[in-house]
Please model this.
Amino acid sequence: LVKLWMHGWRNRYCGTNSVGSIFDTSLVLADTVQLLGFILPKGNGMPQAGFSATIVRMVRLVRLARLVRLLRTGVFKYLFEIAEGMEGGMATLGWSIVLFLMFVYVASLIFREGLG
Model:
């Protein structure tokens, strides 16, 4: 509701991301109908089989594709550069750990033989 109030109906449902917004709204409405089916008493005239939004919840996984699209934007450019820098530094860090452990091993052998 806050996004709807900030951006307005036209920008929310007719703008660049209208398909995703309509999909989100339909998921919320389907879950609301299912919740009302569980909350309301059984003798209210609604069918006993009820509406199952389980399939709709599984379709909700499609929303993960929106996250992938969000990661392609320029906002995360520096984050990816930081991650690539960390990945590039892993080899250097690994070899420096090996060198340090070799020094510790040789020093421990010298002290073990020298001090008994």
User: Anything to note?
Assistant: The helical segments are 2-14, 18-39, 54-59, 64-71, 77-115. The chain has a mean pLDDT of 77.
